[in-house]
Amino acid sequence: MSFQTLQTIGLVLWILVGLCLITVVLVAVPALRELNRWLKGSAELGEVARALKPGAETLTKAADNINYLTAAFRSDADEVGRTIRNATDSANQIIDATRERAAEVHGFLDVVQEEAETTFLNTASLLRGVRLRRPRGEKSEEESSKRRRLG
């Protein structure tokens, strides 16, 4: 398509849009005049509006109260939600700290048990070695003390 063809199509479209606007204005203006006459001439419509005015004011006040209560409730609900999240975070931190402490105590008890077992085995081995190394003619200290007591 050439530039000349595009200009011609654009001009035709502008003319069509203009004609549509003129048609809408020619149809809408008389319809709006008739509507205006009907609204001004209708005494009943004015009376209905005056009768509904106190009810509308009451409904407006009720809507304002509902908005205030909703905002207060939303604020309280948000605060409760924050409190619950904080409590949950604190509880999780306490649980994690308790798990770490339990692991430390478990490790400490493992070390204590290992040391106790080693000490017991070393002591048992030492005592066994002392008994085995005693010369044959000597009596054990236990036997000597029994004889001394008996007399």
Characteristics:
mainly alpha, 0% strand
Describe the 3D structure.
With 151 residues, the chain is mostly helical. 93% of the residues lie in helices and 0% in strands. It has three helices and no strands. It has helices at residues 3-41, 43-133, 141-150. It is elongated.
In short:
By secondary structure, this protein is mostly helical. It is 93% helix and 0% strand.
User: End-to-end span in angstroms?
Assistant: 139 Å
- Beta-strand share of residues: under 5%
Helix content: over 70%
Number of strands: 0
Structural shape: elongated
The poorly predicted ranges are none
Pairing-aware structural class of the strands and helices?
mainly alpha
Mean pLDDT: 79
Gyration radius over CA: 52 Å
Please give the count of helices: 3
The major beta sheet can be summarized as: none
- The arrangement of helices and strands along the chain is HHH
Tell me the layout of helices and strands:
Layout: H1 3-41, H2 43-133, H3 141-150
